[in-house]
Automatic annotation (TrEMBL):
It comes from the Bacteria. Residues 5-86 form the Toprim domain. SUPFAM superfamilies: Toprim domain. This is Ribonuclease M5. It comes from Ruminococcus flavefaciens. The lineage of its organism: Bacteria, Bacillati, Bacillota, Clostridia, Eubacteriales. PANTHER family: DNA PRIMASE (BACTERIAL TYPE) AND SMALL PRIMASE-LIKE PROTEINS (PTHR39156:SF2), RIBONUCLEASE M5 (PTHR39156). One of its GO terms (molecular function) is ribonuclease M5 activity.
Length: 199
């Protein structure tokens, strides 16, 4: 398992499952062409492009190239690294028939080939190695989920940190884990609550 600082953008949940077994990183799913209409997800991708950089890892077919091109254009600034998988013909195990172009997607590529693709693009393991300890329980304990004013508190925190406003609690945990640990988050929350005792 290698830790990667950049957020990795993939097309679908099976790509994410495959990658999660070999890399420790934030992995964002585009839901295929769904990204074209998902302004909230694009905002999150832009955030990561500026903060940590993003890695675009889409399939090597026409659809994958179109999604890659769209993200590059929509993100604009920040650090974008493209990781390309080679053309490997075949069919994913879970599918009845091959894709339109007959190529394997990210989920069907073997681990060694995927790691080699990262290496070719200059992506190496993170130097920090420190793992954040923020969990769903952390958010609950700090009043960021499960409470009467949790949503308002989350929005206030997201605004304070320069994050997109409409993040789900799960997405917020992923983002916070790239920024700080639970002690630092508790400190930020205590400052925010001090500013506004109404929440």
């Amino acid at each position: 398992m290698i830790k990667i600082d950049e957020a990795i953008i993939v097309e679908g949940k099976y790509d994410k499952i495959k990658l999660s077994s070999i890399v420790d990183a934030v992995i964002i799913i585009t839901n295929g062409f769904g990204i074209f209409k998902d302004t909230e997800k694009l905002e999150l991708i832009r955030y990561y492009a500026k903060k940590t950089g993003i890695i675009i890892l889409t399939d090597s077919d026409a659809a994958g190239r179109r999604i890659r091109g769209y993200i590059k254009g929509a993100v604009g600034g920040g650090k974008i690294t493209n990781v390309y998988i080679p053309d490997v013909f075949g069919k994913e195990k879970r599918k009845v028939k091959p894709s339109a172009e007959g190529k394997l997607g990210v989920e069907g590529i073997d681990v060694q080939t995927l790691l080699a693709a990262f290496e070719k693009s200059g992506i190496t393991a993170s130097k920090s190695g420190k793992r954040s300890d923020i969990t769903k329980l952390t958010l609950y304990e700090l009043g960021l989920s499960g409470g009467e004013n949790s949503r308002e508190l989350r929005e206030k925190l997201q605004l304070h940190l320069g994050l997109p406003r409409q993040l789900s609690a799960g997405a917020l945990i992923e983002v916070l884990c790239t920024m700080m640990d639970s002690a630092e988050l508790a400190q930020v929350m205590s400052e925010l609550k001090g500013e506004n005792n109404g929440i």
